[in-house]
Amino acid sequence: MTTAEQDTHTARALQGLEDSRSSVRLRAALAAGSIPDARSVEKLVERCAIEPEFYVREMLTWALTRHPASLTVPRLVAELRSERPQARSQALHTLSKIGERQAWPAITRALLSDGDEEVARSAWRAAAVLVPEGEEAELAGALATQLGRGGRETQLSLSRALIALGEAVLPTLRAAMTDLDPRVRHHAVATERLLRDPDAGFESAIEEAKRVAALQDRPGGA
User: Contact at 8 Å (CB) between 95 and 128?
Assistant: First the structure.
């Protein structure tokens, strides 16, 4: 492709990202990733923050992964300071897909405990991917502060992030099993069970945790 053709291709892709039709925006994101151009990075990141359609956001993330990490990672890290929850969430999601550990210091405890559940869930997934070797136990401790939070999907996301850290999470989970909050205890027990038996369903793990806790709470219970 000549320089002129590249310029035309990029200009059309960037213009398409502004179209009111989601199908056009999808094709534009595909085009931006198919023939990467450094000039596309800023617009792709900006669009991630406001794109309403999930499948278009996924294509935007794919397009960003096609560009050099040296260009995308600093811009995505900057986006983590945005006041817009979707901007933070999508930036974290994209960083997890890129997988460059230079982004690790940007995964702060504030993000891991973000008040927006989508941001927090994205932060948990990104942290589990980017954590440096040897820091799994410390990350487990930070993640454990979120045990018991939210509904099924949120709790399952946290369990998956903890399980991804391997056996380094066991001391933290066992400590959480004695927490005064029953939701924390049940979530910790269910996560430990899933770590031991990945084929066990999350719902059944939670129900078993509640059943065991009920038995233990009875006078003379084991």
Answer: no
